[in-house]
Amino acid sequence: SLPATGSAPKGAQMQQISVPRVQQVPQQVQSVQHVYPAQVQYVEGGEAVYTNGTIRAAYSYSTEAQIYGGGGGGGAQVTTATSSPTAIPSHNMVGITMDIGGSQILSGSGAYLIHGGLENSRHSLSHTSRSSPATLEMAIENLQKNEGITSHKSSLLNSHLQWLLDNYETAEGVSLPRSSLYNHYLRHCQEHKLDPVNAASFGKLIRSVFMGLRTRRLGTRGNSKYHYYGIRLKPESPLNRLQEDTQYMAMRQQPIHQKQRYRAAQKMDGMAESASNSTPHTTPEQSVAAQCQHHQQFIDVTHVFPEFPAPDLGNVLLQEGFTLNDVKTLQVLYRRHCEATLDVVMHLQFHYIEKLWQSFWSPKAPPSDGPTALPSSEEEPEGTLPKDKLITLCKYEPILKWMRSCDHILYQALVEILIPDVLRPVPSTLTQAIRNFAKSLEGWLMNAMSEFPPQVVQTKVGVVSAFAQTLRRYTSLNHLAQAARAVLQNTSQINQMLSDLNRVDFANVQEQASWVCQCEEGMVQKLEQDFKLTLQQQSSLDQWASWLDNVVTQVLKNHEGSPSFPKAARQFLLKWSFYSSMVIRDLTLRSAASFGSFHLIRLLYDEYMFYLVEHRVAQATGETPIAVMGEVRALYSL
Hints:
Elements: E1 34-36, E2 41-44, E3 48-51, E4 104-108, E5 111-115, H1 136-147, H2 151-167, E6 168-177, H3 178-191, H4 199-209, E7 214-218, E8 225-233, H5 246-252, H6 284-295, H7 324-346, H8 352-361, H9 387-395, H10 397-418, H11 428-448, H12 454-488, H13 491-502, H14 506-517, H15 521-536, H16 541-556, H17 565-589, H18 595-621, H19 625-637
Antiparallel strand pairs: 1-5, 2-3, 4-5, 6-8, 7-8
Helix pairs in contact: 1-2, 1-4, 7-8, 7-10, 8-11, 10-12, 10-19, 11-12, 12-18, 12-19, 14-17, 16-18, 17-18, 18-19
């Protein structure tokens, strides 16, 4: 058994590839308010229509793997609030508001104004103040003098002004849409049961607090919006946890003069080197670079890459011409290759993966007759491994098994980097990029390994297929979670769901399901009661996630530490799905008004249960979730 490889030396089995770093570019994107009609409908395949309580939302579900349409990063179209059905922009799978994620719903005049804040930008910005905030006394004094505000109204405005000082601060070179600030203010008034002032009066409040604040009209021609220039959200403000056009807000709060962190090395796949004398109009290449820079705040760039195990050769005899040094060289080179793959993905440079794989598995022949070598540092000798030796070594079962274990560790790390939290709101442009990346993986690897034996290719592709499937599942789960947030935050809709659920004949459901599932009746009744209670409490999505996690723990606790744990976990998934199908069936037959909402929630909870059970099985078996799913795919390929 060879020692485990730590951090690999700089020599590696691949050709030198220049991996560009993304160059941060300021981007202007307009802020959009989301206004939805007072009625929503459920649509499946364009046929059946089910009413859905006091509101109607369009839900459409596509069975195709590519569930995201061509819509940009979370942008939604404004629809007028009328009583007639209104078109809602489709992402092929749309909840009440697919684009707004965990937005807040404000009811008024039969319409729902859906808005939120922004995802935490997490930037420590150095800036100089253009305008200094006034004290409350100064602000009220100015309003009394200039606007004729009475003393009675002054006490009411005190809380509004304090809220502005608590959540906003001056900053050089940044701007915020006027509509975003006003939406934050409306939400604050709703939560504290305060009477809001109109937009014009709110503008006067802001200027009374932040002296010298300027207004600019920003955006593309025909779609420009007014912005306050020189103000931003405080990093510690709770408004940072809200989701409102996260791509726009995070980009706008970047100081215009902030030093650029990454520089592209060459133009490739739309990622162009940004010119130092860039024009005021952002080019497509700059937009892509800026988008990658922005998206890095949603991934885990601090992830530590675990060590690889050592190959266990056992009693295997290497054929003539091969030594243990060749195996050690392969260890070093493969670790180096995996580290390069991780680095590229961490910087969201997905298109370079294909070239990395080509350079390792099918390197171009060198000019001389010498072996294929990797460019290395001047301080260390070159790491070399001829291609014929690489192919031969991969044929050994212990080497192939070791390489598969390394792949499980690599791809699990990539999943945890790209999707550190499956429920956290992320821009749709990032999830779309991840799904496109997943779609290309198998083809890239098969092309790179076209000259390798079928058994080697099948083993490698099996693991990368599990990785791609995991990315597709997790992005779909994230997409469902953002759609469900709007439903779970709608009080009237929750009340309608609870009313419909209380009409379900659970005794009949249990009678039919018990023959198939053979579940303990007491356990089923407890889950029913807990579900209704959690729904009645109008729990948030995170609270529902905690409840589902507790259900898994409760059901599987008798199998912990037992070899039967994986089988029991899979059986639980089947039973959960069967019971939920029976409940949905009952709701359908009763023409439940909240059927559409239940259908969306059911899809989300089924997917999240799968996610929880997958991780529990991995933990129980000492494997990674990628390895667990890879074993299933390996069984199908036999």
